[in-house]
Every structure is written in C-alpha cells, then in structure tokens.
Amino acid sequence: MVLNSSHWGAFRVKVKQDEITDIVPFERDTDPSPLLSGIAEAFDHPTRIRRPAIRQGWLEKGYMSDPQQRGREPFVEVSWETALDLVGCELKRVKEQHGNEGFFGGSYGWSSAGRFHHAKTQLKRFFNSYGGCVDQVNNYSFGAGMVLLPHVVGDQSFLYGPSTSWAALAEHTELFLAFGGLPRRNAQVESGGTGNHVLKGWLQSLAAKPGALINISPLRDDVEGDSPATWCPIVPGTDTALILALCHTLLIDNRYDPDFVNTHCAGFETFATYLREGRQGAGYCARWASGVTGIAQAEIEALARRASECRCFIALNWSLQRADYGEQTYWAAVALAAMLGQIGLPGGGVGFGYGSMNGIGNPVVKFKTPVLPGGSNGVDLSIPVSRISDLLLRPGTVLPYNGQKLKLPKIRLVYWAGGNPFHHHQDINRLVRAWQQPETIVVHENHWTSTARHADIVLPATTTLERNDIGASSSDRYLMAMHRAVPPYADARDDHAIFAALAERLGFAEAFTEGLDENGWLRRLYAMTCEDGQKRGLELPDFDTFWQNGYFEFPAPDVPFNALQAFREDPLANPLGTPSGKIELFSEVIASFGYADCPGHPQWLAPREWRGAPLAKRYPLHLISNQPRTRLHSQMDQTRLSQDTKIRGREPIRLNPMDAAARKLHAGDVVRVFNDRGACLAGVVISDAISPGVVQMATGAWYDPVHPGVPGSLDAHGNPNVLTHDLGTSTLSHGCAAQSCLVELEIFQAPLPEISVKGPPAFRTLKE
C-alpha cells in the first residue's frame, strides 16, 4: 500500500494495475475523517478535467472575445502545445502592453496538502520570476484577526499557533467559554495534512469536568453530543455585546485584576471609561446586553462572577470575526481575558481557532515545514483576498486598508491556480459581474468547478494521488512522505510542470526550476527542514530513509505550552510586538487611522445585518453559513458522501420547528432562500438544535445557476454565497463578513431545475 496525505488526514492507497482499489486511514490516526472515503471516487469522477480546454469565443477571438459569455459558451479541447502556446502569448502580450500590474495571481492554497505541489506557492514563484503580479494577502478564514491582532498583541500567530495546548487546558481549565463552539466537523481538516485527529480526545477530557464547557452559539451541536456542554444560545452577531457586558460586570463588581491590566496592558482606563459611561452614560451592562443577545441578565452576571473565581479560558472560533465589524469580537475577548488576569497562566487566558482546524492546541515542537521559495514580487501591491470583486470592478479607485491607501489597477489577466473563488467569495452574483471584466482568465483545476466553467483557458491539474510530495503542518507532529499512487489522470499535469513549460516559452525556465525536477526539489526542501531541525536539537533521518519509512513523527513537547507565559512572567524582558510592548486595549495606531468602523478600542458596533437591523422586517432569518461536515470547503461535493446528504439534489438548510411551522414548511420540502442579493434552492431539515430566527446552510455546494453567466440567476444547488454580502468586516482589514446575512424562505412551487454540475460542461469539436 502507498502512503499519501490530504488536508483531511493521511491515508494508504491500495492499487492494482494502476487502479485504486481501496483507501485506508493512516494507522496512527485515532479518529480518521470520513472524508477519506471520497478520494478514490473523486480521482476519476465524471467532473474530472481530461485535457486542456478553451472557451469557444476566446479560441476564436482571443482577448477580444465577449467576456459576458464566460459560463455560457461551450469549451473546445485542445492539445497541451496549443494551450501552452496560447497562454504564453497572452502573458507576453499583457506584460508588454500593460506591465505586470495587469496580472492578478489568484490562489487559495487548499488544492494540496503537499508543500512542493502547493499551487499558491507555485503560482507566486512563477509570476515573481516573470516580474510579479498583483497579489493577495490574508485569508477568508481569519482575515480580520490577521490584521487586528498585531496591533493588540503584537503577532498574528496567536490565531494559528503555537496556541495554549490542549494538555494545559485539560489539566488546568475549570471554565471553558467556547464562543462559536468547538465543532468537530472543522477539526477533520488541517492545512498541510495531519497524522492524527486530536480534538475528539481532548473534548472528552474537558467533558470529564462537569459544567466546565459552555457552548456560546446559535447552534447546540457546535459542541457535539458525546462531549457534554452547557448550551448558551446567543443571537448571531452579538458576541461582542456579551463580552462587553462580562467586562462591565467585572469592572462594576470590582472582580477584575488591576495589577495585570496596569502592568501588562496599555489603555485600560480608556476602555473602562467606555464600559462605564458609553451609551450616553448608561454603560454596557448585563441588562443592556440581555436585550441584544437574548441571554438573561442574571445568567450574564453569574457567568462573569464564575469566570473571576476559577481558571477560565476564553476560546473564539475563527467564524466569529467573519462578520460585520468582526475585529471587535476578538479585541473584546482579549480585553476580557486581560481583566480576568489569567493570560499566560496554565489553562487560562484567551485563544482563537480551537475547533476551527485540527491543529489548534495540538502539542507540537517548533520546526520549519518544507516551503518552496516564492521569490520577490516586482509589483508592490497586494489586496486583501476578500476584495477580489472590488479589484476587478473598481479600477482606478483607492482602497483604504490598515492605514494604507491601495490604488486598484486595471486587471487584464487573472491567473488562478488552486482554490475556487466561486465557493469562497461572497455575493457570487457580484463576482460574476467582476469575473466579466478581465480580458483573459486562465485556471488550473482538476475538476469542472464553477471557477473552471467561468474561465477562458482551463488547464487540467493532477491531484495528490498522481504526484510525489511532502505533507507537513506546523500544527501537526507528522512529516508525511506522499507517494504517487497512480499515473496522472488522462492528460493532467502537475502545476509545477505547467509553469515550467510556460517559463520555458517565456525565457525564464532556469530561474523558475533552478534545474531541479520534482525529486530534486523534494530533496532540497527536506534538507531545509533537516537543517532547521538540527538548530532546534531535532535529528531527522536522511531523505531516502524518510521516503522509505513514509513518515517522521516529531517528539511531543516535554511541557505543555501556555500562550504569552514568558510575557506574563516578565513583560519588560519579553515585550510584545506592539508600540507599547504591552497588550493594547486602546491602540493609538488604529485610532490614528480614523476609521469609524474600527475605532481605537473594543466597541459595540451594531452589525449592518442582524436580527436587530431594520432589514430584519423583510428578511427575518439570520443565515449561518458554516463549514460542512461532508467535504472540505467545496472539495468532494461531487462525491457520494456529500451527495447523500442532499435533499432532492439540493443542499440542506436547517431551521427551528417554530420557524418551519410559521412558514408551513415540512422536512424534505425544497425552498427558495432569498434576499436582495440573490436566491438559491435548498432542502428543509427541521431541528431543535438551532435557535429560533436562525437558519443554517453549509458552504461548499457547487454554484449551479439556472442561467449560467447571468448575474442574479437562481442557484439550483444551494450555494449560500449567492446570499452573503461582499462588504469587508471593516476598513481596517476588509475581512470576509459572510456570517452577517439575513434571508427569508418560501416553498418552491415550480418544477425543480436540473443540477448541471455533476458532469462536465458542454464541448465543441475544434474546427481545423
């Protein structure tokens, strides 16, 4: 059996005569993901891209073709030589006529757990070798936190590790406040792969402490049933209000730690004045928060008192900052932890992303994961990743961002390799309009996703089964040798081979490949990890031994890690990377930007869309579009594991029995979910695990418009991003704010449209 790895875990592949006969979870994984079952099916699924394909209009007229035909016209399959010649000539044309600012290099990094065949890095290295392109920064997962936290605690790594380890939490934490829950469905995945899924075991440790785990979420099953938790249902988008009320109670009852905020924090008095005197002197008290959050005043006050009397850890899911003014929730949580005075203590303080990915809190030693050098970008412009539509629709305008002013250029060519923006991005109808602006769109893909269907030139890429690589995550203890199991599917090529062929045509092959093939690069990257390991006292085997053994397991740390422990023990000797060297509860830097939607300290800013907004009279249901259980983002949606959860071919939408009864809906009905931005179909699931006034539909159903390429068309499949707004969290970060979304439901009376994304798009034969 051949060992390989994926974002949802390592596995072994049984192969007979180049045919996959079985996928077996890695023997060291104590809780393997069911997503592994879809890997073999996805390999040769009908949606697989067989050979290079060109949109018919672009093949006939090139960059002068009608961009509004993207998504509508059939494709024409061509040879690799023809496709590479066309792409190479188009890259040369744009560079000569418009400069490198005419390129946008798009990727989202989830196409492979392998560190060499990492599409985003391959794309970056290619364009940087060619003079650069407009790039992207941050991510959809925690983009607001990435910008905010360096101003507050001096480092964005607080978001993804090293984080206070589960070992410390299991031993010392007496009260675990899980804002957004600890959903195990998210912990199936880890960027770079994982050798062992750990969350289930650590949740069982917490569950052994009766009453320790509080699930603060509109969804009861954000902590699953085998890990008992007290459910504290909250109105979506109001976590900041609850946290401020907890801070207010600590302040008024004199239950906070004055020594810690005086010695380790900057700006506490400004924040305390806001808590006491805000709202025209009424303060942000528990009584006020009760009316906002739906949680009783007495319950809020009791929770604050309990937190001050025991070892308390405040955990925030990444999803909480993916909302209007999401920066405020994270900043307020840091303030709450600071007032409790437990930051840096074993099992105390604050952390982010627990239950968002497998590796958060996983006890690991520091080591350098293999990384392909990306080179230097000759274009000095990177946009926040969630501002793609702004970039394409608003050339010449200025985007204020984190104290900067980014002038958006006219993009002539979008080159996308890895990721699916027609899944990740908000307000897909706006994205369709944006996608019609460039002259040319080139996509590397292995399946006919909506992104591929809306491209001009589609180049078929291999999957992890079809190439050799090294899998690694800085939050996992395993370095995985990813062995090729089968030959490339049809005419597919790996991203590196595609870029190398283009670099050859454009005259910089040596700069891109450095004369190394796949094996040569794997050996170099592994040697870089070994060299770093030696500096840290870690001895790794030589490459050939590692490759033959299949994996290397790093030792577990001797002592559980507690975030900011050194800073707590001596803040002068171990200052944070903030201007004051302390935790900034008031930031002079952020205040100096003058952003009304992100002031200088944590504040309650009512979301643009929530159940307390005027818009709720028309659209009274708050849509939670969370991560799916049966796929990774949109990957694997075409496989049986995901398809078996559909209702009459549509993505399920869950709602409370009260909301179903008010609309005379029954389980299994197909409904139209709609707001002013768009509409999609979904299948009804009725559940008391969801709060009244809230509906939940997972992300990742492949976008399938009834009228392809037409903005505003009904999505037949159930992609919630036809409903979410494309406004950034705030001017500070422009993060994704998908969780602030109001909708309404109605029974769908018309005949159900077919689902077209289960197979390939239409093709035409090449005219000689």
Describe this structure in words.
The chain is α/β, with parallel strands linked by helices. Among the domains are: 2-138 and 379-553, Rossmann fold; 614-747, Beta Barrel (Barwin-like endoglucanases), CATH 2.40.40. 29% of the residues lie in helices and 17% in strands. It has 25 helices and 30 strands. It has a seven-stranded mixed beta sheet with strand order 6-17-18-19-4-5-30. Strand 12 (312-316), helix 13 and strand 13 form a beta-alpha-beta unit. Helix 8 (239-252) runs antiparallel to helix 11 (286-293) and helix 11 packs across helix 12 (297-309).
Question: What's the layout of helices and strands?
Answer:
Layout: E1 2-6, E2 9-16, E3 19-25, H1 39-43, E4 53-55, H2 56-61, E5 75-77, H3 80-98, E6 103-106, H4 119-129, E7 135-137, H5 143-152, H6 166-172, E8 175-179, H7 199-207, E9 213-216, E10 230-232, H8 239-252, H9 258-264, E11 265-266, H10 268-277, H11 286-293, H12 297-309, E12 312-316, H13 326-340, E13 349-352, E14 382-384, H14 388-393, E15 398-401, E16 404-407, E17 413-417, H15 421-424, H16 428-435, E18 440-445, H17 450-453, E19 457-460, E20 469-471, E21 478-482, H18 495-506, H19 509-513, H20 518-535, H21 543-549, E22 551-553, H22 565-569, E23 583-584, H23 588-593, E24 621-624, H24 640-643, E25 652-655, H25 657-662, E26 670-674, E27 679-686, E28 694-696, E29 742-747, E30 763-764
Parallel strand pairs: 5-30, 6-17, 7-14, 8-9, 8-12, 9-10, 11-23, 12-13, 17-18, 18-19, 24-28, 25-27
Antiparallel strand pairs: 1-2, 2-3, 4-5, 4-19, 15-16, 20-21, 21-22, 24-29, 25-28, 26-27, 26-29
Helix pairs in contact: 3-18, 4-18, 5-13, 6-7, 8-11, 8-12, 8-13, 11-12
